[in-house]
Each structure stands twice: as C-alpha cells, then as structure tokens.
Amino acid sequence: MALIDPGDLQRLRDAATSRRVAKLLGAELKSDGTGCCPLHEDARPSFKAYDGGGWKCFAGCGGGPDGLSLWLAKTRGRFPEEARRLAAELGITLHESRTLPFIPRSASPEPRPKAIRPETLWEPSPPPPDLRHPELGPPDRLHIVRDAGGRLFGAHARWSRPDGAKEVRWWRCGGWSLGGLKVVEAPLYGSEHLASYDRGAAIFVVEGETACDALHALGLPAVATVCGAGSLPGPQSLAPLAGWRGAVILWADADQVGRQHMSRLAGVLQETVEEVRIFLPEETMPEGGDAVDWIEARSGRPREELREELVAAANLPADAPSWGDSAGDAMARPRLSLGPGRVPEKRLLPDKLSDFLRLETPPRKWLAEGLIAERGLAMVHAKRGVGKTHFVLAYV
Prior knowledge:
The protein is of the alpha+beta class. The protein contains twelve helices and 15 strands.
C-alpha cells in the first residue's frame, strides 16, 4: 500500500474543512455552518460544521476533527484511496511516500492527567429567569431536567423557527453547554416523579419534554428521552426503570426516525423490565406527530374523556384513579395506576450440549480480512501521528 506524503496529507486536511466537504456531499449549510447531516436522512437539521474545521452530528452520527474524517464517514472506504478521491475533488495533488514520518521522542507530548469530574458538577445552579442565548435570544420553552433523586441536571431550551424546525440547547453550570457531559448521560425527563409511581402499573415513555408534559396534563405517568431520536439514553439514565413490573409503553413519533428510536430503546429495556410495548397511533397522526399532536387534534374535549380514549387506544385497563382535579395536583403527586402488565414469555437458549452443537450460526465476517473481525475486540497500536484514526475509520 503506497503511503501519502505527510506534507501533502497536511495540505489536504487544511483545505478539506468540514464545511467544504459537507457541501461536496450535497449538504446545504447556513452561514453559521448548521444544516441537514449528509450522513443520514435528516429531516430536521442536526449537523454543525465548525469554523475550526471540525464537525458534529447531534443526531448520533458522531463527529470529527476535519473534512477528511467526514468524507471517510460518508464513503466508508479505505483511507488512502478515499483520501486521493477527496484530493481530486478539491484539485490537490498527493505524492506517494515510501517511509513513515519520523516523530522524535521529544515531540511526544507529556501524558495528560486523568480528568476528575467534581461531584459539584451534578448539582449546577438553576438557570436565571432572564435566560437568553447570545444568538437565538430567549427560549420559547425551557424544561428543567432532574434525576430520579430530584437532583438538578440542567435546563433544556427550545426555539421554534419560522420554517417549522426547532433549535435546542443545553444550559448547565452557568453556560450553554453540558460541561463535559454527553447528552446520553442526561436523565429521562420527569425522572423525579418515578419514585411516587406505582411500579406495577403502566408508564409511557415518549420522545421530548413537550410530549411528556402533554401526558402529565392528562394525568398519565410518563417520562421522556431528551437525547434526540438519533441516540439512546445511557444505562445510568435508564436505570430507574429497571425492574418495572407494569407495561412500559414506548410512544413513537409518527415517522421512520421516531419508530427506529423506540424500537432500539425497546431492545435495551426488554432486558430489565417485564413488558415493553411500542404504541403507534399513526392513523390519526400527522407525519412526525407525537402526543402533543394527538391531543391537539382533539382540542375542546374534556381531559378525562381524552385520558379514557388514550387508555383504550393503548389497550390498557381503564379502571384507574386519577392524579387529581388539576394539572398542578398531578405534577405534585402523580399516582395513576393503569393496571399490572403481563409478563412476556422468556426465550431461552437450548440447555443441552447436543442442541447447542446443532445451532446454525452465521460465518464470521471480516472488516479487514484476517485482521479485524465484525463485532470483535481489537486494538490498533502505533506511534502518534501515523494515521491510526484514519486507518480505523476506513473499516468502521
């Protein structure tokens, strides 16, 4: 395999900014570098190309330091060939090198001390009443996210744009960022109410805080994912639902992304709860609609009537007490019971050696023949700067 001259490779990285490569891949970006992600079917813009050359997809595709990493993530080809293809697109000539670049030992940076996250980061101060984003202004909605113990995690702000799209930002620790945390570490919205729910009764899990608030207003127990449909809440976020004995009803948004989000979440939850259902009332829902749209389509009808219709649509027992006479009472002490869920049949592997030996297993697939196996564990080790990241991206 012919190597690329290190100087030419650096020229390619400098020229291939993420904004420039995103446009080559067909993305239409705004002046601030935001737009639809070129790596997946993105109906709601989730991509950001930064001025420093890096990029990030907030729907779960990941990110990278330059446009070359974005190109490799899209083409999923091998590094040298794809680097030359990108160079040709940009009019850059790459020369071959037969030797690896020499990096003197003295050039290696001192190892960084392992970061220690102070416990105080978990208890940030609440957002000020006049909270305002420097570019987006005051948010249209601001949701306070707490964990199951009631500790403040942060504030999730939302802005609605004239074209119907939305912008979301996190406020935490006095600034517009998560302070080093990942969005998948955020608790489920409404987790602080879980301790007062009947764990033998049904509970709704929806996507987004507004849908969760809509169900709370009807007197229904609910929590919401806050990481976006392209990601899944982490184990720590889902831990409060472990051992739930009632039905966990996943209300999917009425689009492909929403259905995939809840299908993936069901695969995770089915290992820790007794019953998981996916709720899809799509016959009465607009494209991308959620619980808010379901309720708005029935505006003017009494709250109790809407609650009974929803309980029937979700195929749940209707003989359940209400939270209270007002939405305020409901939020203060949620105690709705929708009846116990059934225990699904457990599928076990064969327990006899003869049965095990007769199992048909697919042959192992290789990402790099004889070197890196699909779904295997491997470590790529080399000196700093010789291209380990690009080598791995060529196969992942």
